[in-house]
Amino acid sequence: MLIVDQSKSNIVNLDRTINIGIEEKSTLTDETEISAQTDGYTVILGKYETETRAREILIEIAREFKRVLRTENRGTGQQRFYDVPKVYYMPEK
User: Looking at beta carbons, which pairs linking 18-26 to residues 24 or more positions away fall under 8 Å?
Assistant: First the structure.
């Protein structure tokens, strides 16, 4: 899964991501940041006005990550599950 940051200037590959988390509010901007740690560097994915909104975004990312395509064979009723390539776009504030 890929995550496109809020500014549309970075794409983070979850396969190479160590951690995605919420950073405490910055005293300069009074915003809560969601950042990803990948390969020894940190990318800010988005900035939000409240920690509650940032948590909602993390839940959306997790839901998108676990979404799969389910198909059913009409003759046998057997189900198959496929991992669908996904891209998550960080929402605006």
Answer: 20/45, 20/58, 20/61, 22/51, 22/54, 22/55, 22/58, 25/51
H or E segment at 69? strand 68-72
Q: Report pLDDT for 61.
A: 93
For the chain (93 residues), the mean pLDDT of every run of 10, in chain order, is 95 92 78 90 92 94 85 80 87 90
Q: How far apart are CA 32 and CA 64, in angstroms?
A: 22
pTM over 0.70: yes
With CA atoms as reference, report the closest residue to 1 among 87, 63, 84. 87
Q: Are 90 and 34 in contact (CB under 8 A)?
A: yes
